[in-house]
Design a protein that fits this description.
Elements lengths: L6 H36 L4 E4 L4 E4 L2 E4 L1 H11 L3 H17 L2 H5 L4 H16 L13 H16 L9 H14 L6 H14 L4 H6 L1 H9 L5 E5 L9 H5 L20 H5 L5 E5 L6
Antiparallel strand pairs: 1-2, 2-3, 4-5
Helix pairs in contact: 1-7, 2-3, 2-6, 5-8, 6-10, 7-8
Length: 280
């Protein structure tokens, strides 16, 4: 006879399913980035993917990353079409928070790889710092980029934004035989994540992340802890790449809703829920 699942077991199962869905989403984005050159070259289904997920055109409908939209507006002035293209992403971020960074960014595998390399270096005795960057640094980067774009009339954010750089590098490698200068910046970001600080670029400097934090500040989705099940083991805090502290209920708009803390909790004390609709 099957054992009746306790609430903790149910929570753990939900958390693992959520993690599987997240990994599937990441894999889907990587697949889109990988096949974008073929879609562009052969015009399949009248679909063109440019800098996915920076800018995607499907059957004539343009969908823009909010950072791409702001860059265009800053460089070229007001245009309703650009704002409308960013609207679906803005609505999703407003509802779900900074989910893009944890569910759809193609840089996620590189973060995982840098974490593995960092852990290996520490294991063999290499001392590595964990550089602390001021909390508002990403907002400064965003402001400087947009101000420079407005001043010079050139879109600059895409030159240091990993989602755009990865897609463009893959496209250039497949179509032109070379990854271009963007790959150099990605390599620098990857190395900095290893030797300077865990997920340093995404955690503290990414201009796209700054926008998602602003728009998703009041998202109703958040990580909720059940104190009666929490054993203060610190596992959830350790796995978080964005310096959040679910164990002490200290999460803010920097949380990427990746659910890694939820799936790693051994007692099922954490849930990723819509506030006011918590499952018990």
């Amino acid at each position: 006879m099957a054992r009746t699942l306790e609430p903790t077991d149910l929570r753990l199962r939900r958390a693992r399913r959520l993690l599987l869905v997240r990994r599937t989403c990441v894999a889907g984005v990587l697949l889109i980035v990988a096949i974008a050159p073929a879609l562009h070259a052969f015009g399949l289904f009248d679909t063109e993917v440019r800098g996915a997920p920076w800018s995607i055109s499907v059957f004539g409908l343009e969908f823009l990353d909010p950072l791409a939209s702001l860059s265009v507006l800053a460089a070229r002035g007001w245009t309703t079409q650009v704002l409308v293209g960013a609207l679906p992403a803005l609505v999703l971020v407003a509802l779900l928070g900074r989910f893009f960074c944890g569910w759809m960014c193609p840089y996620i595998p590189l973060i995982a790889a840098s974490e593995g390399a960092r852990a290996l270096l520490k294991k063999v005795g290499v001392p590595l710092p964990d550089v602390k960057v001021p909390n508002g640094a990403a907002f400064v980067v965003l402001f400087v980029l947009l101000a420079a774009s407005a001043l010079f009339g050139v879109q600059l954010a895409g030159l240091i934004y990993p989602p755009s750089l990865i897609a463009r590098s893959v496209y250039k490698a497949a179509m032109l035989g070379g990854a271009g200068g963007g790959a150099t910046f990605l390599a620098l970001a990857f190395v900095s994540d290893i030797v300077l600080g865990r997920a340093l670029w995404c955690r503290a400097l990414c201009p796209g992340g700054a926008i998602f934090r602003i728009v998703g500040r009041f998202s109703p989705v958040s990580v909720v802890r059940d104190p009666s099940k929490c054993t203060d083991c610190t596992v959830c805090d350790v796995v978080c790449r964005f310096e959040q502290s679910p164990m002490t209920d200290r999460t803010d708009s920097a949380c990427e809703r990746c659910a890694r803390c939820v799936s790693s909790c051994p007692t099922g004390a954490l849930e990723l829920v819509m506030i006011g609709r918590r499952k018990r």
